[in-house]
Amino acid sequence: MAKELNNIAIPVTDLEAAKSVYTALLGEPFTESPYYVGYMAEGLQIGLDPHGHRHGHTGPIAYWKTADISAEIQSLTAAGAQVLDEPKDVGGGLVVAVLKDGDGNFIGLAQA
Description:
Elements: E1 5-11, H1 15-26, E2 31-33, E3 36-41, E4 44-49, E5 61-65, H2 69-78, E6 82-89, E7 95-100, E8 106-111
Parallel strand pairs: 1-4, 5-8
Antiparallel strand pairs: 1-5, 2-3, 3-4, 6-7, 7-8
């Protein structure tokens, strides 16, 4: 079954500095807040997350759409992944979770 990439979240330590760089790269953001700045690039959302480092996110995280985040987590953990961030509603009914594979790479899940 093919998966659809939902968005990529980039942890940043200086939101204003990162916003300057990514605005030069991607144009004006479609959403701005103290906790997230979002851009659209070819239909893909690219977001700057100033709180990612606090959650142990050391690099960009690709979030994949799923219809059932609990079932997806169960499948991935059975295959050897570990849950880093339990599912949480981040607003507007969007539930996200972060896992990591055996090499420490992040796997993001998003359920709308």
